[in-house]
Structure formats: C-alpha cells, structure tokens
Amino acid sequence: MQQAATDIKIVDARPEHASFVAWVMLTAARSHVENGMWDFMAGPDEDRALRFLEALASTEQAHWAHHSLFLVAEVGGRPASALCGYFDEQHAPSTMLPALPLAAAAAKIPESVFMAGWQDGGASIVHVSPEHVPGAWIVEHVATLPEFRRQGLVDRLLAAVLDRGRARGATTADIGVLIGNDRAQRAYEKAGFAVIGEKLHPEFEAAYHCPGIRELRRAL
Question: Is residue 73 a contact partner of residue 10, using CB atoms and an 8 Å limit?
C-alpha cells in the first residue's frame, strides 16, 4: 500500500544517510534495465553491492559518489528519495577512482572480481556518457523508494537541487537518462529540461541491453 508523503523535509545528506544513498545509487544506475554500472563492479550479490556503495559514499574525501553531494527527501523523518548535484570541474566521475579500491576492500570484493566485472561490461558506459558544457550544474543519481513514488518527491528535490546550482552561479543544468526510461524523462521535462541529444554504442547496448543515454538540459 502506498504511503502518503506528508511531513516532507528536503535536507542535506548526512553520514547516517550513507546506506540510503547506497540504495539510491544502485537503483538509479539500474534505471529500467536489469543491471547497472554498480552491478558490474560489485557482482550479482546485492547486499555486497550495497555494502560497497555505502563504503564509497562514506570515504573521507568527497567525490562523485559521496553522500555530501546529495539532497534527501525525508518523509516523517524517514529517507524516501534522493538525488545529487555537482559541478563536473569539481566532482566528475573520475574523482571517485581513488576511493574505489577502498570501498571494494570494505565490501570484501576481490580486486580480480571487481576489475573483471568492470572490463566485461561496466566500462562500456564511458562510450555513452554525456558531455557537459563548462560550468554546467549536473543532476544525477535520482531514485525514490517504491512506496513513496508518484507523490511529487522528485519534483521537490529537482527544484531544490536546481536552486542550489543557481545559488552557486550555474546558468545551465544537465541531466542524463537511459534511453527507454520514459517515466524519468517525463519527470525531467516537467522540471524544464529538454532533450539536446543522445549517445549510442553497440558495446553499451550489448552489456546493458539499452542503446545509450539521452542528455537533457535547461537554463537556470
């Protein structure tokens, strides 16, 4: 039964939100397909993948997958939805590379397993990653617990994260969506984003069973 979203607060993610942020990143990466980037990295054990992501979100240094980049929608004090916003110049995906082996070790993922999964399929995502204009405010890692979906939480989070980007001087915001995730694309278009292009690649399609990523942009 769907729970009504009352007593909603949008808050900065705190260290204690790391386990929820881990779930958000895993769910967002899966989008509407069976396996996302993190599944290739951490393997088929979902508990292990979540431990890996929680460790990644909790490192001492901030980076692309760190909890400090996230906003969380709490409903009655319970984390229900989240997303992150950042400047590519500060927190591009490459910024998490030093943290990956630390998180893998914390989740007891052998380096050979981690690297093999990345090379066998996960790495193909680089072929379709969106390209951003300098200074763009990038929104990413968007997910909501099933019982709180379709209650406007993502709308509120998007408004809040765009306000944050605007306050930090951004005049453009970007967001990407896996092609075929029409529900997410509609939510982003409702928030003022419009499709500006898409990137396709056969290696990505073979690994993810999705042709590529569509990029959306809006002015701030």
Answer: yes
What value does the mean pLDDT of the chain take?
Answer: 95
Percent of the chain scored above 70 by pLDDT? Answer: 98
Contacts of 88 (CB under 8 A, 6+ apart): 132, 136, 138
Cα-based angle 22, 116, 93 (whole degrees, multiple of 5): 45
CA Rg value for the chain = 16
- Kindly report the pTM of this predicted structure: 0.96
DSSP state of 133: -
| Alpha helices, H only, the chain | 18-30, 37-42, 46-57, 88-91, 100-106, 111-120, 153-167, 182-190, 202-208
| Locus of tokens 């694309």 | 185
* Amino acid occupying residue 167: A
Q: Which amino acid is at 171?
A: T
